[in-house]
Amino acid sequence: MAQPNIYEQHLDQTRANHTALSPLSYLERTALIYPDYPALVYGYRRQNWLETYDRCRQLASALHQRGIGKGDTVSIIAANIPEMYEAHFGIPMTGAVLNAINTRLDAPIVAFILQHAEAKVLMVDPESSGVVKEALTQFDSSNLLVIDIEDDSFDGGEKLGSLTYDVLLAEGDPAFDWSLPADEWDAITLNYTSGTTGNPKGVVYHHRGAALNATSNILTWGMPQHSVYLWTLPMFHCNGWCFPWTMAANAGVSVCLRAVRDEPIYRAFREEKVTHFCGAPIVLNMLANAPDEMKVFDHQIKVMTAGAPPPAAVIANMEGMGVEVTHVYGLTETYGPSVVCAWKDEWNEHPAEDRAALKVRQGVKYLALSGLMVADPETLEPVPADGETMGEIFMQGNIVMKGYLKNPEATDKAFKGGWFASGDLGVMHPDGYVALKDRSKDIIISGGENISSVEVEDILYKHPAVMEAAVVARPDDKWGETPCAFVELKPGKEATDDEIIAFCRDHMAHFKAPKTVVFGSLPKTSTGKIQKFVLRDQARAL
Question: What are the residue boundaries of the AMP-dependent synthetase/ligase domain, all occurrences included (predicted)?
Answer without folding.
Answer: 27-405
